[in-house]
Design a protein that fits this description.
4 helices, four-stranded mixed sheet, Trna Endonuclease, Chain: A, domain 1, single chain, 127 residues
């Protein structure tokens, strides 16, 4: 008999993030820089302290875009998800610094926000 092992629970936002990334690889051209950030919890207090010492900031959005010198961030949440207090604070500071931030819960809402920000999308996505 195999030993029992707990599995790390699958976070719904991770599924949304993977879907969004698959679409963005096709939808955005080279004039748009984008990256998806991995904010997995630190495995222990020491690892967390080391991140903090290196300047890793809590509350950053899951996805970052730069287009024509403007920073845009998108936080991905499941339909029932809500921003944490540190995310609210960090997003406010980014807006104060001139960046744009949105919270989205699907590929469609991400594409809508990118269009609103006048970021060019090269493909039409059919449902």
């Amino acid at each position: 008999m195999r030993p029992f092992r707990l599995k790390t629970p699958r976070v719904p936002e991770h599924d949304i993030q993977e879907q969004v990334c698959r679409v963005l690889r096709l939808a955005l051209g080279s004039e748009v820089f984008w990256s998806s950030l991995d904010h997995a919890n630190a495995r222990n207090a020491k690892a967390g302290a080391m991140r903090k010492a290196r300047g890793v900031r809590a509350g950053l959005p899951d996805m970052e875009f730069v287009f024509r010198g403007q920073y845009h961030g998108i936080e991905l949440k499941a339909a029932d998800g809500a921003l944490s207090p540190i995310q609210i604070e960090t997003h406010s500071r980014i807006k104060t610094a001139g960046g744009k931030i949105a919270t989205c819960n699907s590929v469609e809402t991400v594409l809508e926000k990118l269009r609103e920000w006048n970021i060019p999308i090269r493909v039409r996505i059919a449902a």
